[in-house]
Design brief:
Layout lengths: L3 H26 L4 H53 L3 E8 L3 E2 L4 E13 L7 E6 L4 E2 L5 E3 L4 E6 L2 E6 L8 E10 L6 E11 L10 H7 L3 E12 L2
Parallel strand pairs: 2-11
Antiparallel strand pairs: 1-3, 3-9, 4-8, 4-10, 5-9, 6-9, 7-8, 10-11
Length: 233
């Protein structure tokens, strides 16, 4: 099916031919009378000029429409490219668990499984498993974790951050379990976030630490879910 603009262009080209054919018969029939022939010739010329003028206007309109469409297409293409450039390198799907209830001074256990859904692989140093713990959970004290080989976790304020020496190809997963202490003065509802912090690391910056990536303002994405645990006495 032709695009509407293509149809307009086709009509503009056919218009002069239709006008010439339309006025050919009257010009031949009027040949027995010079005056009539002259009038017919004048009418034919005027009609041809009119057709040409209409064709020119149609052609101009078609060109303007084509230019307008091209401009719109160019704008849409630029917007699409900008959106694509703004998309993350790797998107992680996160599944986690946390207990519904805990007691003050007791233990709280979190589990997390993160899967790289693409579109690109994520190398070691480009993603970190994180736990954002509430005030009622002691991240600065003793806590333990279980994860893949060659993984290392540290506390950074109220956050537990884990680095994994593994390239996460599209479809690969990584799992962690954390066991932390609930503070004795904890109360109410403990809201924790489990997830993955991923960086869009540019070429040449693969060996930079997380702190350096943050300092340089490298774009990062947090893929996580929040879990609520009620403190009971």
């Amino acid at each position: 099916m032709l695009h509407p603009i293509s149809k307009i262009t086709t009509l503009a080209v056919a218009a002069p031919l239709a006008g010439a054919m339309l006025f050919a018969a009257p010009a031949t029939a009027a040949s027995t009378s010079p005056a009539a022939a002259s009038a017919a010739s004048t009418t034919s010329a005027a009609s041809t000029a009119s057709a040409a003028s209409a064709a020119s206007a149609a052609s101009t309109a078609s060109a303007a429409s084509t230019a307008s469409t091209a401009s719109a297409a160019s704008t849409a293409s630029a917007a699409s490219a900008a959106k694509k450039a703004d998309d993350p390198f790797s998107v992680f799907a996160v599944k986690g668990t946390a207990p519904k209830k805990v007691r003050p001074g007791g233990k709280i256990t979190y589990s997390l499984k993160a899967t790289n859904t693409g579109p690109y692989e994520s190398k070691a140093g480009e993603y970190y498993v994180v736990v954002y713990a509430p005030k009622g959970v002691d991240v600065g004290g003793k806590w333990s974790y279980y994860g893949p080989k060659k993984s290392q976790c540290v506390s950074d304020g109220p956050i537990a951050v884990c680095a994994v020496d593994k390239t996460m190809k599209v479809g690969d997963s990584v799992s962690f379990t954390f066991r932390m202490n609930v503070k004795k003065n904890a109360k109410g509802t403990l809201k924790s976030t489990l997830g993955v912090l991923a960086y869009d690391v540019p070429n040449g910056a693969e060996n930079l630490s997380r702190e350096e990536l943050e300092r340089l303002g490298v774009k990062s994405w947090l893929y996580g879910k929040q879990y609520s645990t009620r403190v009971v006495r």
